[in-house]
Write a structure and sequence with these properties.
Arc Repressor Mutant, subunit A; 6 helices
Length: 133
């Protein structure tokens, strides 16, 4: 039986990605304790609150742009790239420059007292809060 990923949890995590940083479909999936990377993409494709929920900050693990707004056409990818460039992300063709530096799950700057991987740390905090609600 497949486990179902709650879209609101994906969107909640996604809102934590700061401007000028990116994560990956895999990074979001790992934060939710799943390997359903493609399911994350399908959820983002249906994002009802873009750009408040910044799905444009999710790219492929190889640093390439990936899809945007449900498509991978040159028009949608160009739009995604333009938004990211406006947030300070630099590109070499269609690949993010300094990918490790702007990747928001590298563990390079965890908040004090939070797991060394920011998204996982945020997810663990959410789970603790849910226990108290």
């Amino acid at each position: 039986m497949k486990s179902k990923i709650n879209p609101s949890k994906v969107y909640s995590l996604l809102k934590q990605i700061p401007r000028g940083r990116v994560t990956t479909y895999k990074g979001l999936a790992q934060a939710l304790h799943t390997k359903a990377y493609r399911a994350i993409g399908q959820i983002l494709k249906k994002n009802p609150d873009a750009p408040a929920v910044p799905c444009h900050r999710v790219i492929r693990s190889d640093g390439t742009i990936g899809g945007y707004m449900g498509g991978e056409s040159s028009v949608s990818c160009t739009k995604k790239k333009k938004i990211l460039m406006g947030e300070g992300i630099e590109f070499d063709e269609n690949k993010v420059k300094n990918f490790k530096k702007v990747f928001f799950q590298s563990g390079s700057e965890p908040a004090p007292g939070i797991h060394s991987m920011p998204l996982i740390g945020l997810r663990l905090c959410q789970e603790k809060w849910e226990e108290h609600i």
